[in-house]
Amino acid sequence: MGDGKVAEATILLDAVTKRFGDYVAVEQADFAIARGEFFSMLGPSGCGKTTTLRMIAGFETPTSGRILLEGRDVSDTPPYKRDVNTVFQNYALFPHMSIFDNVAFGLRTAKVPADQVRTRVMDMLDVVRLPDMADRRPNQLSGGQQQRIALARALVNHPAALLLDEPLGALDLKLRQVMQLELKRIQRDVGITFIFVTHDQEEALTMSDRIAVMTQGRVDQIGTPTEIYHTPATPFVAGFIGTANLLPVTVVSQTGDDVTVETRLGGQCTVSSAGTTYAPGSEVTLMVRPERLVPAGAPLHGTGSGASIRAIVTSMVFQGPVVRCQVRTEAGADLVAHLGPEDDPGSFPVGSEMEMTWSHDGAYLVPEPIAADEAGVTSMEDDQTAA
Amino acid sequence: MVMAEGAAPPVVAEVRPSKGSTRPSRAGTGWGRRALTLVAIAAYIWLFLPILNIVVFTFNQPSGKYNLSWERFTLENWAEPFKDAQLTQAFWRSLVVAAVAVTVALAMGSLIAIALSRYRFTGNKLTEVFLVLPLTTPEIVLGASLYQLFLGRGVVLGQVTVVIAHIMFLVSFVAMTVKARVRGFDWTVEDAAMDLGARPMRVFWKVTFPLILPGILAAALLSFALSLDDYIVTDFTRGEFTTFPIQVNNAFRVSFPPQVNVLATLILVVTLILFTIGPLSQRRRGAST
Questions:
Q1: What ipTM does this complex have?
Q2: Cβ contact (<8 Å) for B189 and A92?
């Protein structure tokens, strides 16, 4: 992201690498976060997102590269001298202090006068909607309330950026959804840059202005939720965000917006180029999202006719809003389609033959190849329900 | 809503657990329960009868020099607890030794406990072994080796050597006690404090220290009692310096005045007060350590 180093970026990571002995936790992280942005780092456990966050906070020092905070190199600055504050995964509230004292801690450390402390703490408690809790102890609060106090304690110091390390992980689903919207509201009201770490892609998509998708220490893609979802840069991103049907293909030719690709079995189809130029002969990955696959004859989800593929139905599961239809192609790849009632899923029992079609703009060419045995549907659905 | 004639509203049956279901019973039934109560009473008597005896005999007026059999009731002993000059001097000396030794041991032991449980460093395991040694070594061996150590260096035995000896084994107790309290401590709060702008010293005094304080207080009470009580190691390292237990034993050949009981009961009462204040104040502060 060489030219992306904006002068007014709040946080800049310049080729940051972090090694623990032989283990590379973060490799060449290089991006800028703009002022007032809600920026998420998303990826599975062990991808390096928390290590990166800790480096921004100052709890880890980069092995190489620099971290700039509002233009100043803070790579070696200890956490108590950086103008960022962290909301920890387990809240880390001070158990021996009242809620008021917890929230006031940063202000008092900065020697803010007592009357200002009082005003700012009570205002912040209003912002997180817990004005009556000032005299309580952390162990008297529920998980969701503790989390909001942790947020208040960090925000009250008006840092240049707020770092959040999977703050919603310990909450139940309903509360998590409520808190997602709350956090987004607070961020918009207060206007501070939020840097949010999560493994929950739905969460990241809901809340973020931009997302950095990470895996095994590398940043695979940085983009808006729409970009990440519709135009993933790598097969990993395609599969990690929602469900994706991936097929290895080779580019035959490109004429304007139409790219002709060929599958391993020799079948050809045309895909919308979405503005990119693909070199003939290059190996790429064809991605079709499950909501774009429809049985032949049903109305296409998208414009223009694209292609079709023959397959046998292996399962048909009612999931409420959609019917999850899994099929196996002649090449042995499993594909998943999300069918609505208008697609008449009932007429395709298990074992029957079906022709899956998608529109011209319903597929996307991911500019990286996958191995033959990775063809088919990749889904994080199972991982998410387990988490 | 119109109810059809003759139709009865549905009855919701109350679900009750049947007798003899899988709910845990309280310590058995019948004779087993009674036997347990008897054993418990016997145990309490076994534990407290000697102590009770000491307290009761503070009110005794012995006819001879030994306060060992009951003569008649008196409050005189409580009026003059410091009648025996030598005994009183030894008592104050015990208190001074305990105060100094406990203070030093608390400082050293707590820091050791924090270091051992927070950091992983070379010698971590070795230090833990060294800490356990004074607790597992027979006191006679400890005392004798200290005696040999001091004598070999030409150090005069007295109050200082006693204090040094006490510090030596008290550090172990303090470290183990504080370490047990500190285990499971969420050190992230220190990160949080640093993140909020606190430098390491402020982090220690405002966050770490208040959280380990209950452990330190528990260790303080324990080590105070251990120091006052110590006989064998003290005897080897004291030279001519006498502490309370030493004095009582030395004088026993000649007398056993009721002031011994009084002073001992004083210690007991103070300890009891401290032990009840501690948990009460914690509960009031609502701290969950």
A1: 0.82
A2: yes
